[in-house]
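Minutes, project check-in

Agenda point 3 was the complex the collaborators sent over. CS summarized: two entities, 523 residues total, and the question is how they sit relative to each other. Sequences were read into the notes so everyone works from the same version.
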Amino acid sequence: MAENLAGTVGPEQQFKNFLSEGKFMIQRCKSLNKFFFHPRVAFPGSGERDLEWVEASGNGVVYSSSCNRRLPEKGGDFNLSLITLEEGPRMMARVEGVDPDKVEIGQKVKARISSLNGEPAVIFDIV
Amino acid sequence: MDQNDINRLRGKTAVVGLAESGCGLASGWSAMEIMANAVHDALDDAGIKLKEVDGVFAATAFHSMAAMSLSEYLGVKPKFADGSQIGGSSFLSHILTAAMALDAGLINVAVVAYGSNQKSAGGFKTISEAMPYEAQYQPRMPVTAYALSAKRYMNEFGATREDLANVAVSARDWALLNPRAYTHQDGPLTVNDVLSARPIVDPLGKLDCCLVTDGGAAVVMTRSDRAKDTKNTPIYLLGAAMEHHHRMISEMPDLVQTSAIESGKRAFSMSGYNPNDMSTIQLYDAFTINTLLFLEDLGFCKKGEAKELVKNNNIGPAGNLKVNTNGGGLSCVHPGMYGLFVTLEALRQLRNASGDDVGQRLDGGWIDNAKLSVAHGNGGVLSSQVTNIWGVSDTL
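CS then shared the predicted structure for the full assembly.
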């Protein structure tokens, strides 16, 4: 790693930049051949720094789910889930296209890049 | 350094004074004023003068440098201070740090304190930063995190919302015996009350969630040789341990297993006692799911079996397990960070059984002959877990 970080951006900004380009990218440690999320400067727990970005398959399974109650005038109820990606890591996201309280553990989901409050966001749909 | 080294701290320090202040509603009082009031009352309880305090430990959701702000307010120049902020369990870790500093001779008298006016100041208060990779989805933290755990728990172990509701029902039954409890006058809860309460984040409804109150608390600690000469019954710190493995709920390795498995194992090992030796069990119940997880993770039953353990009001006043005997965060008090109140109840039960006057309870509210209490703190989103084991002098 360069000591001087000027002129580069960190993994969080790189992830957001990829999303802006329509790509859902996750990091893989080459020597361990393991994926991880969220993006970091090194593999969590053991510190390997030979990392690369790989486009995620977008396939996942609902690990847990919640229906967040919200007044209709503020946008209404919404789903918030934890998704285990096919590559192994887990992430928080919303599952859309189904009633927010009808998302069940174990359901297969597929990622797409949408936007939330003007920012690109990974959203999942039930397969 | 191996585990035996930390075990040298067993019984070396004791709490000799405690107090709460402004619990419920304290309109017109600032968080600092509530906290400082608790410190002065705890020192009065101990019979120790303010000028003897040379260790200050505090964390709040109102002060970025709580230990420093509290020291200044009190007019104390501590030789050691710790304002570590690991959420609601901070105070149970402060107790461990204070024990280390006392044992090392850095300080002679420590105060551990908390204060909050969140209810009178407008509701749940946090100084938590937005979590990267989560915030854009707008989770209702901390409720969403605990709901995700509850949903997963129900799925893995066939638990139901009724099983969760049993926890709230028992907590209320304890609160009915405790005149200090915020819901003392509110009457009992039924399982149906809990199930039909307003949904917040499914599967958790309003009565699965802790209270939102004001309140402050403080304890005074000193070395055990000095503790013997104070005016009340000293309660000895027999075991203490902590662990955490995530900050964000999306990073929790397994939603139904907390670091309490590790903190509990090490704290009990240090104390020389087992979960079944505990006269009282005080668990940080920010949500109903917490009590189930911590009963399992601390070793009171196997994983997935707590739903059976809490049936038939078995953790209520008439039950076999004396759990959250003040009414807990669900029905006694929850001023944002509840950890020091878990500690207070663990200590009060032991002091009452030793003959100290620590307040009145209705029949059954005090545990006869209580000798050992476990106090377990939780912080963040099932993140930081800290376990303290407390005992009276016979247990040393």
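Noted in discussion: The two ends of chain A are 40 Å apart (CA to CA).
Follow-up: revisit at the next meeting once the mutant set is ready.
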